[in-house]
Task: inverse folding
């Protein structure tokens, strides 16, 4: 069945770079895109970035200068990098299958703190 | 960016009530509107896609409608397990955007 699972460091220091991995199963990254979405504690959802089945990418314009999304199709993984982290980047980070946006991972909590 | 405005922000209703949640886009989104249910500590769950299509496995008491800029999620008979926050989401134009959510409570 379709599954997505996020992994990452949990705690990151301010100004450092965050690296997150979404490992998928049950579908191919060359047939479906994957997006990243984040949710600060107690707040709403924010779309961050997407990588589509053909390999093209899209980014949230407010975060674009700090983001990089890529994939490794041999490992069924999508990678998200975000640099210059601030406390405001503390959030639960989800990956979701796109363009249908139907399946989501359980999320990984990232805390930015010294 | 397209702004998505949900109303009300909090809705309290009784079991068995028919409830309506609203979502308004700042411009036409051509029915590319999904509804998600999120329970505390869980990932969002897709209920309705592209305005009025019920996702597989979702109870038929959930339905969606709308066009242009105005969209609605209806629960025909509220159940205790429907307590959650509901988000609308437009995927017509990048960057895709979410509404701020409606928190649904039981009276």
Result:
């Amino acid at each position: 069945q379709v599954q997505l699972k996020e992994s990452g460091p949990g705690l990151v220091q301010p100004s450092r770079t965050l690296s997150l991995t979404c490992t998928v199963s049950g579908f191919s990254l060359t047939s479906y895109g994957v997006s990243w979405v984040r949710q600060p504690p107690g707040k709403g959802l924010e779309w961050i970035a997407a990588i589509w089945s053909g390999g093209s990418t899209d980014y949230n314009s407010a975060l674009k200068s700090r983001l990089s999304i890529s994939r490794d199709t041999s490992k069924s993984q999508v990678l998200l990098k975000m640099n210059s982290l601030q406390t405001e980047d503390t959030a639960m980070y989800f990956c979701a299958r796109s363009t249908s946006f139907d399946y989501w991972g359980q999320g990984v909590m990232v805390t930015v703190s010294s | 960016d397209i702004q998505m405005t949900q109303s009300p922000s909090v809705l309290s209703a009784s079991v068995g009530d028919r409830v309506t949640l609203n979502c308004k886009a700042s411009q036409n989104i051509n029915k590319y509107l999904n509804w998600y249910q999120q329970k505390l500590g869980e990932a969002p769950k897709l209920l309705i896609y592209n305005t009025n299509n019920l996702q597989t496995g979702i109870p038929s008491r959930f339905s969606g409608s709308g066009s242009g800029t105005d969209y609605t999620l209806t629960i025909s008979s509220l159940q205790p397990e429907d307590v959650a926050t509901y988000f609308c989401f437009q995927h017509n134009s990048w960057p895709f955007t979410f509404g701020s959510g409606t928190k649904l409570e039981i009276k």
